[in-house]
Amino acid sequence: MPIDAAEALAAAPRVREIAWDHKDVQLYHLGIGAGLPATDPRELRYTFESQLHVLPSFATVAGGGPPGVIGGLSMPGVDVDLAHVLHGGQHLRLHRTVPVRGRASAASRVVAAYDKGTAAVLVLRTEVTDADGPLWTDEAEIFVRGEGGWGGARGPSGRPAPPPTEPPDHVVDRPVREDQALLYRLSGDWNPLHADPEFAARAGFDRPVLHGLCTYGGTLKSVVDTLLDGDVTRVREYRARFAGVVYPGETLRVRMWRPAVADGGGSADGGGSADGGGPVAGGGGSVRVAVSAVERDDAPVLADTVVRYG
Fold first, then answer.
1. pTM of the predicted model, to two decimals?
2. Secondary structure (DSSP) of 230-275
């Protein structure tokens, strides 16, 4: 059987040393669409080394990328066809601000394996620590078509929750460059699905698709720039479910709902207009987010998306 859930769950963590510097951070930021307009002071914080700060989602590629989707498929007990694999979701928890330069240890293991009958879902957790202690914890949800049926637990429902019915507080449209996936690949995700038309066709797509984590990073940038005045250090947690694909050249619509109370959680209140409200002041809170593809009648792209901030 291609997936041996018991072996995967029992395997010891895979530990590797990772390192990164300002060049890796700048490349990642460019890969998710930062730097336009090139001379905008707000964009130079992402692209110019003397002003550089790190968008927390960089953690998903730091050191060439914690194992993530492709790495999760090389874990003990897992042997599947990459063409049958989809990235189901991502959950990042920040313990400290990600530094511009760093060396750390990344320990990864499969912490859950769910049997959906016609598919399997694996959850790969990576815990990253440096000399000063924990830096971040990252979880990737990996959906593998045709690999269920071993009689395991089904796990939580994979059906995304609908976005709030109230008008969003903010709406940001993000154009995706035609070469965005080719640029993002340079940060370490070499899955041919994002570059090779023949491989994409074998996986069931009309053409290569954008990395889900590229959309994930670009969405976080929209939230940080719109609601946190560009202050990346305020992000505490970020989770999203990948609800659909993005094709390079499309436009992403990022809708944001601010919570009724800034208490580190709570539900979105939706009150306000698409262009009002301004950045949130100091203190904790959360933002509900939904992302869609404008050119395909606002087809859902990211769902169940929440950014928590301090």
1. 0.90
2. T-GGGEEEEEEEE-S---TT-EEEEEEE-BSS-SSS--B---S-TB
